[in-house]
Amino acid sequence: MRTELRVTVQARPSTELVDGERLLAQRDPNGGKLSFDDEWAQLKANAQAEQATGTRLNGAGGGSGGKGKLHVTPSLLRGRANKAENEASKEFKDAHKDVLAKTAEIPGSMKGFSSAGAFSDFVDSWEKGAKYVAGQIGKEGLGGALRSAADSFETEDHERKRSFEKKYTYKPGDVI
Asked: CA 7 from chain center: how many Å?
């Protein structure tokens, strides 16, 4: 199998040049091209400006970002698991019931319209989706994953502690 690549190059008028090409086409006040040092300085400045905005992870606002160091403990993870299982799951279920109750009223008020049946299908689909999301939040989902992470943290901490507590008995001739 043979692959052929054809490239067509077209010259563009100087008014259509992209930023990098425009920079190269600039001339100094004396009518000559930019010196290498000037051109290099401009290229570096452009790259730094792009990098400064491209690597900002903390959102659109200024500032340094986080408020401190991240300190994750098993108790913190278990607390978040409880919050996911009890508060977030309950809030989602309450919101789901409210939406379902209001949506269930629609088909009865649309007698004579052919779209009335579509709302029944929507309600069925919504219930399936809501059960899935509730499962992802509750004990089988996020809550369970956080609890599992807490257990893993605790087990790893205990194993590390035991590894440092091991006492070795040295015999004559052992190399230390």
From this structure: 38
Going by the DSSP 8-state scheme, the letter that residue 84 receives in this structure is I
Distance CA 93, CA 85 (A): 11
Sign of the dihedral through C-alpha 67, 73, 75, 79: positive
Token reading at 137: 């939040």
At 165, the amino acid letter reads: E
What the block records as the tokens of 26 is 């600039």
Confidence at residue 15, expressed as pLDDT on a 0 to 100 scale: 43
Q: What is the 3-state secondary structure (H, E, C) of 104-154?
A: HHHHHHCCCCCCHHHHHHHHHHHHHHHHHHHHHHCCCCHHHHHHHHHHHHH
Q: Which residues pair with residue 33 across a beta bridge?
A: 27
pLDDT in tens, 29-73: 555 677 888 888 888 888 877 765 555 555 555 555 556 788 888
d(Cα 84, Cα 142) in Å, to the nearest integer? 7
Contacts of 99 (CB under 8 A, 6+ apart): 126
* 167 CB neighbour count, 10 Å cutoff: 4
- Between the two ends of the chain, the Cα-to-Cα distance in Å is 64
